[in-house]
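Q: Hi! First time doing this. I have a protein sequence and I read that you can turn it into a structure. Is that right? Here it is:
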Amino acid sequence: MDRSVTCFLPWSESGSMAASVASLKASGLTDRIYVVIPPGNANATDVVETVSSHGRENLQSMGAGEIISTGFSSTDAIRKMAAVTDTGYVVTYSKGFPLDLGRHALARMMQICDDTGAGMVYSDYWENKNGIMSPHPVTDYQVGSLRDDFNFGSVIMYDAKAFREACSRMDNDYSFAGLYDLRLKISQNYPLVHIQEMLYTEVETDTRKSGEKQFDYVDPRNRAVQVEMEKACTHHLRCIGGWLAPEFREISFDDGFEYDASVVIPVRNRVKTIGDAIRSVLSQKTKYRFNLIIVDNYSTDGTTDIIKSFSSDRRVVHIIPDRKDLGIGGCWNEAVFSSSCGRFAIQLDSDDLYIDDHVITRVVDAFHEQQCAMVVGSYRMVNFDLQEIPPGLIDHREWTPDNGRNNALRINGLGAPRAFYTPVLRSIRVPNVSYGEDYAVGLAISRHYRIGRIYEPLYLCRRWDENSDAVLDVAKTNAHNLYKDRIRTIELMARIRMNG
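A: Yes, that's right. Below is the predicted 3D structure, encoded as structure tokens:
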């Protein structure tokens, strides 16, 4: 096999691009380097005019070729990359900032690619954020790693045969999902291998906290991107036998409950917010008989005393578990398996509060009207003082009755607040973890049952420094992502088995 590499990177500022090209050349393994640039036209933007008038001269002086395409992540660009590649390997560098490859980095990637038979390899890297260098490990790929925002880092090596073969099966033209479609197709026939070595340095310009990044996928401004990603993922699920047709088990609601609904609040050390949450529940006006189950997971900051101050209201059920090894999911199980739990269990986080006094009515009505085993509402993002913050309303309108449960394997959550038909939830149980437990349950329910939707906001989601996911380091973020990928893998395996 030809042990040389064809490299591709997007158009960027000339100094950054020149540095990246030089770093790739310094490996001694690059055969050709191409820069993907946008086409010039009569209505060109300033950036495109700059490329048209000066860019080609710069590329020639760097010793790089050009590929004209509308976007680095487009199907058009991927096909053109495949057409000009006659080497054994392909490398893509996806950022517009200077790349600094480690010594022998490409040789190491080649070695691992050959040794494992991988169609694609990626590695850990050094992150340069505001001039500060820090290690940035990434996670192992698995069959359930279907989220389109999986972090491979910015440098990826492909076996050229796998690259071209995947391109030959690209039946759809995407503006945004070309690279996503490529790796899904490669994963159908080849392993994707993570090298747990830091082989390069990349510049990180997104300095937002983890809690500020996690809602990007539901930002309405990204809607066109999400539509394409869903289409690519759905096609992949069909190819591997994991797609589910819109056929659901029928459901009838048991009458053997004292309460129509129970609001469930697991809590630990939320002295600043638990009172607001409780009051928002007790102020509900509804024809349905309901109670409030608060599972107090050994709070030490005065939260318990605040809960006790509401004990005169007989609707308040205050549970302190016998066990001290419970996460949020374990606390949910304490509530759901309690004899006090109503027919429907409705979620409210201890940081948040219902948006008005008709939430319980709307949720219970939705169960009956949509004949579903789970209802997912919408919420409005606010700061601690309940002032709206971007992106505002989170309504997960990407959900469709026909394909929602398939697309659920791609996205990072189903939305909130969540409510469950209690017998179904008892049959599944909630994983005893404090992250992703709701997502795991939602996927399992959607395998067989309809999930109902309410697209009007039902609660105010407080974002503040004491949110459990407000500021996570790389290790914790990776652990969360790895767990959700594992949940997807388990669910996908179950669906493939179910499809026979």
